[in-house]
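for the recovery benchmark. tokens below, seq after
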């Protein structure tokens, strides 16, 4: 079981001295590496001002220079906002800089008004975002492993195109695909994913989705090839479960500046260590390999240590 640590970046660019505020991000990344997390993760948004972040690719490059071992990912990343050739080139360069430590957790993006506006602002019709994501993955994979490619898709057409450098990772950078609610998403994971990212809030939904992905993978000749399965969840772990729930939800309301009834789409684990471990053991038994953890607490160090020193051993890893 691998544990990833979500870095909080949306508050950084709001501060008066944004350059200095990024120094805390470097410190958080170094601390995650020192504690023994397997990867660190950033979010991705461009024009959504109430969720504004620094550019994820630029920040990942800086993180690669600030760390030496920990893997670096973006989740949920929206490749369809970007030209696939330019994105493939930037990511390949990133992978070289980091010596093969880049991971992507990509998404179509939810059907919410602020996401639709973001796609329109970047010149992508929102109704095309799913098709563009699939073509983007296909193009990047080929550019990372072939000298030149021809591609005749619905949205992108290329003739004799190649990039250098190719990624350090062969045949390319791992691409995990987020999908939770519909068969189209599960089919995309089955056809194109190296892994699956989910917010499935119950073991029953998780198990059913994993079964669907495995079934869809067989006709593509990809049975057993979607090896990574990542649960994206928000944690507050306390000896007193009631205290964990109260502290966790208070933090969420402050961070997102919304009442908790509007935050129900987040998968939260606000509980005591035993309850948390029992829940995650069920997921692990159904195929979970990775946890991407947002920590909903002002005491990030204590919570991070709780996850690695109290929860992880209880899972048998």
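predicted aa per position
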């Amino acid at each position: 079981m691998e544990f990833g640590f979500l870095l909080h970046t949306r508050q950084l660019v709001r501060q008066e001295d944004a350059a200095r505020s990024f120094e805390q991000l470097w410190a958080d990344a170094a601390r995650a590496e020192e504690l023994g997390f397997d990867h660190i993760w950033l979010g991705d948004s461009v024009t959504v001002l109430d969720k504004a972040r620094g550019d994820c690719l630029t920040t990942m490059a800086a993180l690669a220079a600030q760390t030496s071992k920990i893997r670096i990912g973006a989740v949920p990343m929206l490749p369809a906002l970007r030209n696939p050739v330019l994105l493939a080139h930037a990511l390949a360069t990133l992978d070289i800089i980091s010596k093969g430590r880049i991971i992507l957790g990509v998404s179509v993006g939810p059907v919410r008004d602020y996401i639709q506006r973001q796609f329109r602002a970047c010149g992508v019709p929102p109704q095309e975002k799913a098709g563009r994501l699939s073509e983007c993955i296909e193009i990047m994979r080929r550019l990372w492993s072939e000298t030149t490619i021809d591609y005749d898709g619905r949205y992108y057409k290329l003739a004799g195109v190649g990039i250098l450098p190719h990624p350090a990772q062969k045949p390319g950078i791992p691409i995990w695909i987020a999908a939770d609610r519909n068969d189209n998403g599960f089919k995309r994971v089955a056809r194109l994913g190296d892994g699956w990212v989910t917010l499935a809030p119950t073991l029953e939904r998780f198990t059913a989705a994993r079964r669907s992905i495995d079934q869809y993978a067989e006709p593509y000749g990809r049975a057993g090839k979607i090896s990574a399965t990542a649960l994206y969840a928000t944690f507050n772990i306390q000896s007193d479960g009631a205290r964990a729930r109260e502290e966790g939800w208070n933090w969420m309301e402050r961070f997102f500046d919304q009442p908790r009834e509007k935050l129900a789409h987040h998968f939260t684990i606000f509980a005591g260590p035993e309850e948390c471990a029992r829940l995650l053991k069920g997921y692990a038994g159904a195929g979970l390999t990775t946890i991407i953890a947002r920590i909903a607490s002002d005491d990030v160090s204590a919570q991070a240590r709780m996850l690695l020193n109290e929860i992880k051993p209880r899972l048998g890893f």
